[in-house]
Design goal:
alpha+beta; Rhopdopsin 7-helix transmembrane proteins; Beta-Lactamase; Alpha-Beta Plaits; 3 domains; 18 helices; 57% helix; 14% strand
């Protein structure tokens, strides 16, 4: 089967134009990783197609030879460019050193030199270079070495991309898959042509199929965002992690680790694949004993040192698709700086808490001092004024009685005159001490002034108040007070008033109790008088 030269030329020019369009899109993404090698690859394919088209439309043998030779600029460029692109796309830039790039130039340069000088030595085509349609598809030993070399580069590039796709996200699998498919099309066509299996035996259909290659690459760029969103190699991610990473098998042997993990261990504990974790962590055997069989863990650990080091430790099981345990992934992050800040903050908070407690204690002490009588330790008149109003309102709200008793020490001036002022103070202190012990927690004992005390009794009715006052009077009378000038007894007079029976306000209640007290005084002292009696 044959085709006209003009039809071949049109098809080849279409293939070259498609490649040029793809180059234009690649140029718009020039800053993307791998864009340069993609342009070089597409440029080689476009040159191959365009020069082959010129070969078909040329009439003179000299020009036909010239354009056949020109096709080789694309033929030798494409395989090397593809392999370099595969390295860059998969993040293996460390492989692309200047010396290795120079090696990729040697073979294409040698082939081009041999090609243009072949009429003198015949090393490339071995005398088979005739102007037939299959002149590019046969040759001598060096020609076939070049074919093997080119397909070797293609195979390596394809394996690199395919292997990377297997462990990539689905998004990148589609991206890589479309790109590999676009490249396999022309190479399959080339194999068919070289093997004489092409339906066009007089034509190398490889550059014609470049049209499909360019279209698929364009589709990959525009829909799968090739050269726009590129994967970051997971190996690079792992190696550049701040976290240390160890992978253990089911026998607790190290099967993988990253650079951060290597830095944790000293030279004497050099990290090696195949090393048992318990042999590696001899300095921290307590951690090995604690976590050697743990499949999953999130914990913060402390390592002894000066100062100690802190790490966030995470352990995760690694399972296959059937759920069988393959090993464990252990990661850790050094959080010493954060922990030191936390500890410093905790210490500052504790100090602040202690300071606040001290201030609160001082305030409480000042408050207590401000409401206490310094001589007797009972509440003072100021506290009585604050508390009586509050208790009165509560009694009104709860509809309960509120009783007060005003107690006065009888013949207090005589005690001072006979035994001295120190004896008078002792008498007040003894009475205050007795009342503090023999009143309820809800009762309020206050020094009202001079030798008078006020006892506020919430919820106590008049009869109970009378009985309690009588007990106080008798017991106080029995007290023996020892002073430097001798022992003595004191008696008391008590006036009692109850809300609401005797008063409707705090002022009236105090006045009623005070009137009852003076009635007791007038009636001979050492007795109790209830208001209104």
């Amino acid at each position: 089967m044959s085709a006209t030269p003009n039809l071949y030329a049109v098809m080849l020019i279409l293939a070259s134009a498609s490649g040029m369009v793809a180059i234009g899109v690649s140029l718009s993404r020039w800053r993307s990783h791998g864009a340069g090698t993609m342009i070089l690859l597409l440029g080689g394919l476009s040159i191959w197609s365009l020069t082959y088209a010129f070969h078909w439309v040329s009439q003179e043998a000299e020009w036909k030879y010239f354009w056949l030779n020109m096709t080789y600029f694309g033929v030798v460029t494409a395989p090397a460019a593809l392999l370099v692109f595969a390295f860059r796309y998969t993040g293996r830039d460390a492989w692309i050193t200047p010396s290795r790039l120079a090696l990729f130039v040697i073979e294409p340069a040698a082939i081009l030199i041999l090609l243009w000088t072949d009429p003198q030595h015949g090393l490339l085509f071995a005398g088979k270079r005739a102007l037939t349609a299959s002149v590019l598809l046969d040759g001598g030993p060096l020609f076939w070495l070049h074919v093997l070399y080119s397909y070797g580069l293609l195979l390596v590039a394809t394996v690199i991309l395919f292997e990377y796709a297997l462990r990539s996200l689905r998004f990148y699998q589609w991206q890589i898959g479309a790109f590999i498919a676009s490249l396999l099309l022309p190479w399959v066509a080339n194999i068919l042509s070289i093997a004489k299996l092409s339906p066009f035996p007089d034509l190398d259909v490889t550059p014609i199929v470049f049209t499909l290659t360019a279209i698929v690459i364009l589709y990959d760029m525009l829909t799968r965002r090739l050269l726009d969103i590129l994967p970051i190699a997971r190996d690079l991610l792992v190696e550049n992690m701040d976290e240390g990473l160890l992978v253990l098998d089911t026998s607790n042997r190290v099967v993988d680790f990253n650079a951060s993990a290597r830095r944790v261990f000293s030279d004497s504990d050099e990290l090696k694949v195949g090393q048992r974790i318990d042999a590696l962590l001899t300095r921290w055997s307590h951690l090995v004993d604690k976590y050697i069989v743990v499949e999953q863990l999130d914990a913060e650990i402390e390592l002894d040192g000066s100062p100690p080091a802190y790490f966030d430790l995470h352990i995760r099981p690694i399972r296959d698709k059937k759920g069988r345990l393959l090993g464990r992934l252990i990661t850790w992050r050094n959080v010493t700086a954060r922990k030191q800040v936390e500890l410093a903050l905790q210490e500052a908070n504790q100090q602040l808490k202690r300071r606040v407690e001290e201030v609160e204690l001082l305030q409480a002490q000042l408050r207590e001092q401000s409401i206490r009588d310094p001589l007797t330790g009972t509440y003072n008149r100021r506290y009585l004024d604050e508390t009586l109003e509050r208790e009165f309102k509560r009694a009104q709200r709860e509809r309960k009685p509120l009783t007060i008793a005003i107690m006065d020490l009888d013949a207090f001036k005589s005690i001072n005159d006979t035994y001295g002022h120190r004896a008078g103070d002792l008498a007040l202190q003894h009475v205050a001490g007795y009342l503090s012990i023999h009143t309820r927690a809800s009762d309020i004992v206050c020094r009202y002034g001079g030798e008078e005390f006020v006892i506020v009794m919430p919820g106590v009715d008049v009869e109970v108040a009378r009985c309690r006052a009588e007990d106080w009077r008798r017991s106080i009378e029995d007290l023996v007070i020892n002073s430097p000038k001798g022992s003595f007894h004191v008696t008391t007079s008590i006036g009692v008033a109850v809300h609401p029976a005797h008063a409707g306000s705090t002022e009236d209640l105090l006045r009623a109790a005070d009137d009852a007290l003076y009635a007791a005084k007038r009636d001979g002292k050492n007795k109790i008088v209830v208001s209104g009696e």
